[in-house]
Description:
alpha/beta, Alpha-Beta Plaits, Glutaredoxin, eight-stranded mixed β-sheet, 14 helices, 27% strand, globular, binds flavin-adenine dinucleotide, binds 2-acetamido-2-deoxy-beta-D-glucopyranose
Amino acid sequence: MADVLPVLIAGAGGSGLVAALILAQSGIKIRIIDKAEKPHCGSRGFGIQPRTCELFQTLGVQDDVEKRATAIPTMRAYKLPGGTIPVKTWTLYPETGTWPDRPFGNGICVSQEELEDVMRQHLKQYGVVVEYGKGLVSIEQDADSVVSTIATFANGKETSEQEKIRSQYLLGTDGAKGVSRKLLGLTFQGETRDTDGMVWGDVEIDGLTPDYWHVWGNPEVFTIMARPITPGGKKFGIGIIGKNFDPTDLADEAKAKEFITNQTGRTDLKFSKFSWLSYFKPNMRMVNKFQEGRAFVVGDAAHVHSPTGAQGINCSIQDATNITWKLALVLKDLASPSILSTYNDERLPIIAQMLRATSQLYTHLVATPEEKPIEGPSKDDDRKSGWLRWRNSPLQLYGVNYRFSDIVLEKRDPAHVSADKEETVARAYAGYEASGSLLAGDRAPEAPGLITATGEETCLFKNYLKPVHHTVMVFASDAEGVGSVLEQEGKWLESVVKILVITKKKLGEGEMNSGRAIFLVDSKSHAADAYHVEKEALNIVVVRPDGYVGAVVKDAEGANCYFRKIFRVI
Ligand SMILES: Cc1cc2nc3c(=O)[nH]c(=O)nc-3n(C[C@H](O)[C@H](O)[C@H](O)COP(=O)(O)OP(=O)(O)OC[C@H]3O[C@@H](n4cnc5c(N)ncnc54)[C@H](O)[C@@H]3O)c2cc1C
Ligand SMILES: *[C@@H]1O[C@H](CO)[C@@H](O)[C@H](O)[C@H]1NC(C)=O
Ligand SMILES: *[C@@H]1O[C@H](CO)[C@@H](O)[C@H](O)[C@H]1NC(C)=O
Ligand SMILES: *[C@H]1O[C@H](CO)[C@@H](O)[C@H](O)[C@H]1NC(C)=O
């Protein structure tokens, strides 16, 4: 198998690039191809959920993403006809603050073309370059490998030039229109709104202030939107969203401009050339399974949703983080290939529930006649959400959890573990917000205010929780507790398990007996609070590479017990 590539990634959109980056960071050799001859342009999926920002931070790309990001603009709707008198000004999301354990507030906007560029820049540091103009055309599998046939594409057409790539695993990240799903024989069921359609595009507009996300609506027919892309600039992302109205012919520059001018009455607006313009049919579909043999589908290749709720990128990136850490362990022969099936088990219920939530939002995207925009804020109006207000907190994805998963272990709070698996699966997406509990399977929260041995202040996401290793966090009140755990550290493979010892007070020099643990003082108690650590007790929280709590246990043997679920040998 020496000449066999470990992983081939087919498709270099958001999912493929994130998967590539995590695998590259894990030291796994990959190739990533894309049928397109050059990177796609267009803002497309521009809304990034705060949970995604957290994952970007652990990936080490968040600082670069932020440089190209803007805040989600305030929305403003105008009276028709006329189109200039504001009738309502509001925010898309109810203002959410930031907390020590949730450092990112309301999410950000970044054009997908920018986001993908950041990922490509980071990949380059690992010597990985996207191979453009190479499309997957067929897949054959045997027990040990996948053979993918790759065709060279030129001028948008498949040429007769082909290459066969043998790999141990294949990730199909080729998007909604990709072929991997079909080649693997997966079904793609759900709903298409046949009577509806949308047109999206990026264009410079003279005469429109970049201070708002502008909205003109004709109830029950369409909504026209213009979202400022660059602060203080002229570039806008425009959308024409129909309801029982399918604007197929409007994916044409002249027609789109004419329609917008006609319908908004804003004859004063001057449009320049569109840098991107595309027709889009609202689809809400998902595959029946995420894995076939040694091939996996990830991102839009596995599920497409209405753009409402901006879950596409967010969920795609979660898929990618989910499968990659497991693949990396298997390829290093540290975990059994059977762990790969948990990708399907863990993602399927979450995506199914997310689809239901975004479909519901979609229904509310175009205002109904009773929901005519009214002056000023009104609670009732917001609840109906007809005017693009997203109140559904699960959209922020904090609730996504794997409490139901067979590969998590909860030993601290067994009373809270529901014996009813169906019930826990049903809450995989919405979660347990406000239940005041933190159990194995939940999102691992952030904790700032940690002081290193050399006195620097630090936090978990930036420096410690990474997509390339498990993190064992040992919370102890005394040196004895710490010692009892660190005696076992030799069992946890250093390359894929990091150890943090988090104490209230600094331990003495002679009490820090470890060749590898990092000792941190929880100066403001944020870590103890976020992880629900009781003062006197020994608590061990194991965080998975994907940023979820794998285990909450009371002693080192508990941690061993968890690791036996993951690793071949411990
Ligand atoms: C108009 C529009 C607006 C959207 N708005 C939002 C939003 O606000 N928020 C949000 O989260 N999401 C939004 N989305 C969805 C978002 O763009 C997708 O969820 C996201 O791009 C999924 O990433 P992906 O990597 O799975 O797929 P894609 O980004 O589609 O990438 C797939 C890649 O695979 C390549 N490919 C295709 N076939 C092959 C092949 N045979 N071999 C090799 N490569 C292939 C393609 O060229 C492409 O580069 C929007 C999408 C559209 C179209
Ligand atoms: C991700 O979530 C944010 C909201 O938190 C949303 O605005 C954004 O559109 C989503 N992104 C995508 C690509 O769906
Ligand atoms: C714009 O309005 C004019 C005049 O009513 C009409 O002829 C034209 O078809 C309209 N264009 C579009 C794209 O709706
Ligand atoms: C899989 O892993 C990712 C990130 O590591 C996480 O965000 C996601 O929620 C996990 N689970 C599911 C079902 O996506």
